[in-house]
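Recall that a protein's primary structure is simply its ordered list of amino acids. Everything else, from secondary elements to tertiary packing, is in principle encoded there. The following example makes that idea concrete.
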Amino acid sequence: MPDARILSLQLVRAATSTGANYRAACRARSRREFIARLGVVVEACDETLYWLELIRAAGVMEADGVTEMENEAEELLRVFVASIATAKARSRG
Protein backbone atom coordinates (compact mmCIF):
# COMPACT_ATOMS: atom_id res chain seq x y z
CA MET A 1 0.00 0.00 0.00
CA PRO A 2 1.36 3.45 -0.84
CA ASP A 3 2.62 5.46 2.08
CA ALA A 4 0.62 8.14 3.87
CA ARG A 5 2.35 11.02 2.08
CA ILE A 6 1.39 9.78 -1.39
CA LEU A 7 -2.20 9.11 -0.35
CA SER A 8 -2.59 12.49 1.32
CA LEU A 9 -1.15 14.33 -1.70
CA GLN A 10 -3.55 12.52 -4.01
CA LEU A 11 -6.45 13.34 -1.70
CA VAL A 12 -5.51 17.03 -1.67
CA ARG A 13 -5.17 17.05 -5.46
CA ALA A 14 -8.60 15.47 -5.99
CA ALA A 15 -10.34 17.62 -3.39
CA THR A 16 -8.89 20.87 -4.71
CA SER A 17 -9.78 19.81 -8.25
CA THR A 18 -13.38 19.44 -7.09
CA GLY A 19 -13.40 22.99 -5.78
CA ALA A 20 -11.59 24.51 -8.74
CA ASN A 21 -13.88 22.85 -11.26
CA TYR A 22 -16.97 23.88 -9.32
CA ARG A 23 -15.75 27.46 -9.43
CA ALA A 24 -15.27 27.12 -13.19
CA ALA A 25 -18.79 25.69 -13.51
CA CYS A 26 -20.19 28.73 -11.74
CA ARG A 27 -18.54 30.89 -14.40
CA ALA A 28 -19.81 28.83 -17.32
CA ARG A 29 -20.91 30.78 -20.38
CA SER A 30 -23.84 28.48 -21.14
CA ARG A 31 -26.01 25.87 -19.48
CA ARG A 32 -24.37 23.21 -21.65
CA GLU A 33 -20.90 24.26 -20.45
CA PHE A 34 -22.20 24.36 -16.86
CA ILE A 35 -23.48 20.78 -17.12
CA ALA A 36 -20.24 19.57 -18.70
CA ARG A 37 -18.10 21.24 -16.05
CA LEU A 38 -20.28 19.81 -13.28
CA GLY A 39 -19.61 16.39 -14.80
CA VAL A 40 -15.91 17.01 -14.17
CA VAL A 41 -16.76 18.10 -10.62
CA VAL A 42 -18.60 14.81 -10.04
CA GLU A 43 -15.59 12.85 -11.31
CA ALA A 44 -13.20 14.76 -9.04
CA CYS A 45 -15.48 14.35 -6.04
CA ASP A 46 -15.76 10.62 -6.69
CA GLU A 47 -11.98 10.44 -6.97
CA THR A 48 -11.76 12.17 -3.59
CA LEU A 49 -13.91 9.40 -2.14
CA TYR A 50 -11.59 6.80 -3.70
CA TRP A 51 -8.53 8.28 -1.99
CA LEU A 52 -10.41 8.42 1.30
CA GLU A 53 -11.22 4.72 0.93
CA LEU A 54 -7.53 3.95 0.41
CA ILE A 55 -6.57 6.10 3.38
CA ARG A 56 -9.07 4.17 5.51
CA ALA A 57 -7.77 0.80 4.23
CA ALA A 58 -4.16 1.80 4.91
CA GLY A 59 -4.99 2.99 8.42
CA VAL A 60 -3.38 6.36 7.74
CA MET A 61 -5.99 8.29 9.76
CA GLU A 62 -8.35 7.55 12.58
CA ALA A 63 -11.57 6.05 11.24
CA ASP A 64 -13.74 8.83 12.71
CA GLY A 65 -11.86 11.51 10.77
CA VAL A 66 -12.07 9.57 7.54
CA THR A 67 -15.77 8.87 8.05
CA GLU A 68 -16.48 12.57 8.57
CA MET A 69 -14.67 13.48 5.34
CA GLU A 70 -16.37 10.64 3.44
CA ASN A 71 -19.78 11.81 4.62
CA GLU A 72 -19.04 15.36 3.53
CA ALA A 73 -17.76 14.23 0.11
CA GLU A 74 -20.80 11.97 -0.40
CA GLU A 75 -23.14 14.82 0.50
CA LEU A 76 -21.39 17.14 -1.95
CA LEU A 77 -21.51 14.45 -4.62
CA ARG A 78 -25.29 14.14 -4.18
CA VAL A 79 -25.65 17.94 -4.49
CA PHE A 80 -23.57 18.03 -7.69
CA VAL A 81 -25.48 15.14 -9.27
CA ALA A 82 -28.80 16.79 -8.38
CA SER A 83 -27.55 20.08 -9.85
CA ILE A 84 -26.76 18.35 -13.14
CA ALA A 85 -30.24 16.77 -13.21
CA THR A 86 -31.86 20.16 -12.51
CA ALA A 87 -29.81 21.94 -15.16
CA LYS A 88 -30.63 19.25 -17.73
CA ALA A 89 -34.34 19.43 -16.89
CA ARG A 90 -34.34 23.21 -17.27
CA SER A 91 -32.60 23.04 -20.62
CA ARG A 92 -35.32 20.69 -21.91
CA GLY A 93 -38.21 22.80 -20.65
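The helical segments are 4-26, 31-58, 63-92. The mean pLDDT is 95.
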